[in-house]
Design goal:
This protein is mainly β. The chain contains two helices and 21 strands. The protein has a seven-stranded antiparallel beta sheet, with no helix packed on it. A seven-stranded mixed beta sheet has the order 17-16-13-14-19-15-18, with no helix packed on it. A six-stranded mixed barrel has the order 2-3-9-4-8-6. The longest helix is centred in the middle third of the chain and has 5 residues.
């Protein structure tokens, strides 16, 4: 789908979303306090009708990851697969299975219990290894995670394509009656965008199309623009990833150290499109990451904000229109 001519604002949200009324809300496991986030956000889900487990909602990756022991009826000829999380160095190996991913606690727009389900490739994991190399590799335990990778702009391979994202392939989205996208907010996770849930003062960014998809009918969108300033240094502009899979932050820029952590007390300013927020490392504020790591600038300036960027904001991703947005929560 081609980009819209302009990003929807708080007053124009009814424009792109008024044609849609279908959505689901899925509650967070454990009623997290967004002002003091100490763990990742989780929702309950099951794969192929297997065990219901808490799954981390990870905007920093694409694809569903689950222990193979929790996936019933894996075909014997399922192709082998693997993936590695760059920040932890955790390598997961198993088989790819096209499976149903269900959200048993989902309710529809009227508040009634509803069967929210997507059919996507799933990595059923049989083994894991800590390969090292990432800024969080010291915390790698080798445990097989339950992960809902729902990010965008994570690469041009088939495995990173929107076809692997369970939040963009719900049955109503496939039928064209639900706007493809999601909203990470205080009350819970909203699947499907409507004029009723895209309300308030959003700061929207029009994303750039990633072009012809490696797989499936829908193109992906590139990582949003943004940047960071450390201390009294210059503003480094490039790309920004609001990654809900991490509690810490990673910054990269040419001319800066390629490893280590930013010292406690250092003033940091982060930009996400036209939105700007600040903190001092270690100040304990709602948007302050647990740590700020430096990493090699392999692809220019980049900042991974981590989950705690949402200490004061809700996050929106519109896969049909190609928008990302933040709204005061």
């Amino acid at each position: 789908m081609a980009p819209s001519s302009s990003a929807p604002s708080a007053t124009s949200a009814a424009g792109p979303y008024s044609a849609y009324t279908q959505s689901y809300t899925v509650p967070w496991v454990g009623s997290p306090d967004f002002a003091h986030l100490t763990s990742t956000l989780k929702v309950e889900a099951s794969v192929n009708g297997g065990a219901v487990s808490p799954f981390t909602v990870d905007t920093g990756s694409v694809g569903v990851v689950v222990p193979a022991s929790e996936v019933p009826n894996i075909p014997a000829d399922s192709p082998p697969g693997s993936l590695t999380y760059s920040s932890s160095g955790l390598e997961l190996t198993g088989v790819w299975v096209t499976a149903s991913v269900s959200f048993p606690q989902a309710v529809d727009a009227t508040g009634a219990a509803a069967g929210a389900q997507a059919e996507v490739p799933v990595l059923a994991v049989t083994s894991s290894t800590c390969r090292g190399g990432g800024v969080n590799s010291g915390r790698c335990t080798g445990a097989i995670p339950h992960m809902l990778g729902v990010g965008f702009g994570r690469g041009n391979t088939a495995r990173a394509a929107p076809t692997h994202n369970p939040f963009l392939n719900l049955a109503a989205m496939t039928a064209g009656t639900m706007r493809r996208g999601y909203l990470i907010g205080r009350p819970g996770l909203s699947l499907g965008l409507t004029a009723a849930n895209v309300t308030g003062a959003w700061t929207m960014q029009q994303l750039t199309s990633a072009g012809t998809p490696a797989e499936g009918p829908h193109n992906d969108w590139l990582t949003p623009t943004g940047g960071f300033q450390s201390g009294s240094g210059p503003m480094h502009s490039g790309k920004v990833l609001v990654d809900t899979g991490l509690l810490d932050m990673i910054v990269e820029a040419d001319g800066l150290p390629a490893n280590g952590t930013v010292a406690a007390g250092t003033a940091m300013t982060i930009t996400v499109g036209d939105l700007r927020y600040s903190f001092a490392v270690g100040d304990g504020g709602p948007q302050t990451p647990t740590e700020v790591h430096r990493a090699p600038a392999r692809n220019g300036t980049f900042v991974n904000t981590g989950l705690r960027a949402l200490g004061r904001y809700d996050l929106l991703y519109d896969a049909d229109g190609g928008f990302s947005g933040l709204r005061p929560g």
